[in-house]
Amino acid sequence: MVNGYYYFTPNFDPYLNMAVDEWLFDSICRHTVHCRAALRLYSWLFPAITIGYNQDFSEITSKEYLDEQLPVIRRITGGRAIYHEPSEITFSLSAGLDIFPAEARTMSCTTGLISESKVELLF
């Protein structure tokens, strides 16, 4: 089994971005891909707002700033609403908890380990 895959998917539309993240997450959880983790960097073809998996859309403040041209899409991950624009680069990491030490399998510990890690990309 491969330890991990890296994907770079520039300029996808917001719906496809969230669908790919969900597919990667589901594939790793179900072991239907032959890797333990997938790191994905991506950008946005046009602006969008994503809302967290458990977030109640009716509780989002400032709805007066939303218009029909700005899609609001639910993410597979938690958190609050995030505004995305084409100039940003977003990352997602899909992995099973087994890649982390047993004592670090909490959200705060895994977030800390990820933010402290260094990735060397060779181009």
Estimate percent helicity: 10-25%
**Strand segment count:** 6
**CATH C-level name:** Alpha Beta
Distance between the termini: 24 Å
CATH architecture descriptor: 2-Layer Sandwich
What is the overall shape?
globular
By secondary-structure content and strand pairing, the structural class works out as alpha/beta
CATH superfamily annotation: Bira Bifunctional Protein, Domain 2
Strand proportion: 25-35%
Mean pLDDT: 84
Biggest sheet, open or closed, and with what strands and sense?
3 strands, mixed
In sequence order, what are the helices and strands, one letter per element? EHEEEEEH
CATH topological fold name = BirA Bifunctional Protein, domain 2
What number of structural domains do the residues give?
A: 1
How many H/I helices?
Answer: 2
Description of the molecule:
By secondary structure, the protein is α/β, with parallel strands linked by helices. The chain has a single domain (2-116), classed as BirA Bifunctional Protein, domain 2, CATH 3.30.930. The chain is built from two helices and six strands; from the N terminus they run βαβββββα. It has helices spanning 14-29, 107-116, and strands spanning 2-12, 35-44, 48-51, 72-74, 82-84, 89-95. The strands form two sheets. A three-stranded mixed β-sheet has the order 1-2-6, with helices on one face. Strands 4-3-5 form a three-stranded mixed β-sheet, covered by helices on one side. The longest helix has 16 residues, at 14-29.
